[in-house]
Amino acid sequence: MAEPTKDELKLIERFRENIRDLNLNNEQEEDMFLLSWIRARENDLIKAEDMLRKSLIWRKKEDIANIFDWHAPPSYASRYKSNKLSGVDNEGRSVFNLPLGTWDIRKAVEAGEREIYIRYVDQLLDKFMKIVRQSTNENGRRHTQFVIIIDMAGFTIRQLTSSSTVSTLLETFRRFEANYPETLKTVFIINTSRIFPLAYSFVKPLLSARTRSKIQIFNSNMSKWKPVLLECIPEKSLPSDYCQDSTAEVLHGGDGVLIAAIVEAGAKLNLDFNVLKANALLSFPRKF
């Protein structure tokens, strides 16, 4: 998060005085922590105070301070994976990879595990922030933001045809937006399918304009999203799956002549054939 301006430093002091009764810990008293709530509410100190007070009540109610003492069912580690990438972005921020498309949220809901799943996500978010705060920027301040790659490959309409599943998904986004303000630097949502706009239409109203402005959405065409990722994340920091060649070699031709063509991921290759009789079977070898 950008350093506070002179005007923001004045707002921070006023804000700190307004919430003096909260007895915040040393980390919560830091300028950057307080500034995150102020910016999230566009410098409106009354709204920022209301947001912070509600969040502290939520953290106490959900016992977030002791959330790492809680253990999810063993299967959750494989069913709902997330990864801290080995590297950082070009400015030293932590980068996370969330393969959300493979998460079967409906399975947890139908198994009566809605509250367990939500707490698992709460724990995951606090784990993200613990990792983020362990690093510092060039000025020696703690990092307060992270970059996340949300991979939607594998996401199906099945997750959206259950109202209980949708409400569970929305609750996790609602909690993030309300309790982790200004923690996102950039969100890359990749490998989206045609049903993604429907899913995003449920989530979008819960997100502030500031959050929405940080989201970049791409389909499955790696040649489109990979260069954008590389603008802020070194290639060595990306998952190995994202570093593979995004082209396929197709051999085609006729009359015994084969010609090689390189087809970019998500692109099409149009071929013309002279079909001499009806019901002819077309086949050709492929090399991937």
Structure notes:
The chain has 288 residues and is α/β, with parallel strands linked by helices. The protein is built from 10 helices and 8 strands. The strands form 2 sheets. The chain has a 5-stranded mixed β-sheet, covered by helices on one side. The protein has a 3-stranded antiparallel β-sheet with strand order 7-6-8, with no helix packed on it. The radius of gyration is 24 Å and the shape is globular. The two termini are 43 Å apart. Residues 246-259 have low confidence and may be disordered.
Kindly summarize this structure in a few lines:
With 288 residues, the protein is of the alpha/beta class. The protein has helices at residues 6-18, 31-40, 45-61, 76-79, 105-110, 114-133, 163-179, 196-203, 209-212, 222-230; strands spanning 83-88, 94-98, 146-151, 184-190, 215-217, 247-252, 259-264, 286-287.
Write the layout of secondary structure elements.
Elements: H1 6-18, H2 31-40, H3 45-61, H4 76-79, E1 83-88, E2 94-98, H5 105-110, H6 114-133, E3 146-151, H7 163-179, E4 184-190, H8 196-203, H9 209-212, E5 215-217, H10 222-230, E6 247-252, E7 259-264, E8 286-287
Parallel strand pairs: 2-3, 3-4, 4-5
Antiparallel strand pairs: 1-2, 6-7, 6-8
